[in-house]
Amino acid sequence: MKYLIVIEKTATGYSSYSPDMDGCIAAGKTTEEVQKNMQEALQFHIDGLKGSL
Q: Model pTM?
């Protein structure tokens, strides 16, 4: 499955969120780092949702 990821520049690096996954966010110093962190955050979020079924 694919999810939209929004990456924004901050004063200290980058932050990201997915409008499709409420509360799923990540941050990093570079765009590459924030993308990696967001992939991990999405997987963690999805695993948590599966566990609550």
A: 0.87
Is 17 among the domain residues? yes
Q: Report mean pLDDT in 10-residue bins for the chain, 53 residues.
A: 94 97 96 97 94 75
pLDDT value, residue 3? 92
> Within 13 A of 24's CA, how many CA atoms are on the CB side?
23
Give the C-alpha separation, 1 to 14, whole Å.
24
Q: What is the count of structural domains for the chain?
A: 1
We report the CATH number of the domain holding residue 21 as 3.30.160.250
4 in Cβ contact with 19 (< 8 Å): yes
- Two tokens, residue 20: 């499709």
**Three-state SS for 46?**
helix
